[in-house]
């Protein structure tokens, strides 16, 4: 038996509908190529307040497996009236029994997060495999927790007989890991597309295979692109170095420009060069110039040039360099 787990696709998001459709198209293709028995969506298949585009509905209609959707916060349930969609109720335990292509029965269980765990009745497990879909994190795995969502105790997952828990409360991809030696395997697919600043690395779906045990594999979503960040050291004349790395057109790139330049014109030149060189080749480009200092008198002093050379070559990841930065900026403000 095989399931594909995704979350936070946010279809129907304003002027980025085509981007979302590209990612959805790749996900549907994966479900067909991998012959999965179900597509799990742990939160926000659609954007809150948005209408599901007809093109997205058409793509989802090509699924050859059932679609299990646990709505996210503010997500319209009316949007999810889709062919083969099994809409899970996040306000209570909602147990669905499904059948794989090979005729094996398995359980999909949505878990509420509004009530205290000791108030919940534990539903008996009647088939070999049980998968939980929830918008809560797991207390034993702090990286799965979100400040706005509660946490589930791993012992509770064991009591439920959970084999795989599909977590959907955070946008970061967390590679599946087990809670203890015999506990449930917990996976957080993260956002299937870049929706927030700071999301780093490739977007993925999680392939979950059930055989002698439970195995998982991260499936990169190439169409979603990646979020990348770079620190560029700018020359005194405003010259911007090249980045020798291939990018995808759907990448989100943040550039942080650092250095001491001759004057405000050089600073503007560095900013404009960055935008002109890379702005049209990626989906989003952000340029941060707060680390770029303009000081004509400082840059021309011989001693200062040696200091600039050392400052340009500093290790930006070294916390002690923060003091160096403050000193250099103080000097340039006085010059």
Please provide a written account of the structure.
The chain is elongated, with a radius of gyration of 25 Å. The protein has a 6-stranded mixed β-sheet, with no helix packed on it. Strands 5-6-7-10-12-11 form a 6-stranded mixed β-sheet, with no helix packed on it. The protein is 23% helix and 29% strand. It has helices at 17-33, 54-60, 154-160, 264-278, 296-300, 302-312, 321-334, and strands at residues 2-6, 38-42, 66-70, 85-87, 94-99, 105-110, 129-134, 137-138, 151-152, 164-167, 174-178, 185-188, 201-202, 204-210, 214-220, 226-233, 252-261, 284-294. With 335 residues, the protein is an alpha/beta fold. It has 2 domains: 2-224, Purple Acid Phosphatase, chain A, domain 2, CATH 3.60.21; 226-334, no CATH class.
- Reading the helices and strands in chain order gives EHEHEEEEEEEHEEEEEEEEHEHHH
The domain tally reads 2
Please write the CATH class name of the largest domain. Answer: Alpha Beta
**CATH domain fold name of the largest domain:** Purple Acid Phosphatase, chain A, domain 2
DSSP helix count?
7
Q: How would you name the CATH homologous superfamily of the largest domain? A: Metallo-dependent phosphatases
| Strand adjacency order, main sheet | 4-3-2-1-14-15
How many β-strand runs? Answer: 18
Shape: elongated
Distance between the termini: 69 Å
Main sheet properties: 6 strands, mixed
């Amino acid at each position: 038996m095989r399931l594909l787990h995704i979350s936070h696709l946010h279809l129907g998001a304003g002027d980025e509908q085509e981007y979302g459709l590209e990612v959805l198209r790749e996900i549907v293709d994966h479900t067909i190529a991998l012959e999965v028995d179900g597509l799990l969506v742990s939160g926000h298949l659609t954007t809150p307040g948005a209408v599901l585009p007809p093109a997205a509905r058409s793509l989802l209609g090509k699924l050859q497996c059932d679609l299990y959707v646990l709505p996210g916060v503010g997500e319209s349930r009316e949007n999810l009236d889709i062919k083969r969609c099994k809409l899970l109720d996040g306000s209570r335990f909602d147990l669905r029994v499904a059948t794989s292509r090979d005729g094996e029965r398995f359980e999909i269980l949505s878990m509420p997060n509004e009530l205290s765990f000791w108030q919940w009745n534990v539903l008996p497990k009647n088939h070999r495999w049980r998968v939980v879909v929830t918008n809560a994190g797991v207390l034993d795995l702090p990286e799965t927790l979100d400040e706005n969502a509660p946490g589930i105790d791993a012992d509770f997952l064991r009591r439920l007989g959970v084999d795989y828990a599909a977590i959907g409360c955070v946008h970061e991809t967390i590679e599946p890991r087990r809670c203890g030696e015999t506990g449930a395997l917990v996976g957080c697919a993260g956002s299937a597309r870049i929706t927030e600043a700071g999301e780093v690395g490739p977007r993925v779906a999680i392939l979950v295979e059930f055989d002698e045990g439970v195995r998982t594999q991260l499936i990169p979503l190439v169409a979603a692109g990646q979020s990348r960040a770079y620190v560029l050291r700018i020359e005194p004349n405003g010259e911007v170095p090249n980045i020798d790395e291939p990018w995808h057109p759907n990448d989100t790139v943040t550039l942080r420009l650092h250095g001491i330049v001759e004057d405000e014109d050089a600073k503007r030149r560095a900013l404009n060069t960055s935008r002109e060189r890379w702005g049209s080749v990626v989906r989003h480009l952000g340029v941060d110039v707060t680390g770029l200092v303009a000081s004509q008198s400082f840059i021309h002093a011989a001693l200062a040039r040696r200091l600039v050379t050392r400052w340009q070559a500093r290790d930006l990841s070294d916390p002690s360099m923060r003091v160096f930065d403050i000193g250099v900026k103080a000097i340039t403000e006085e010059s």
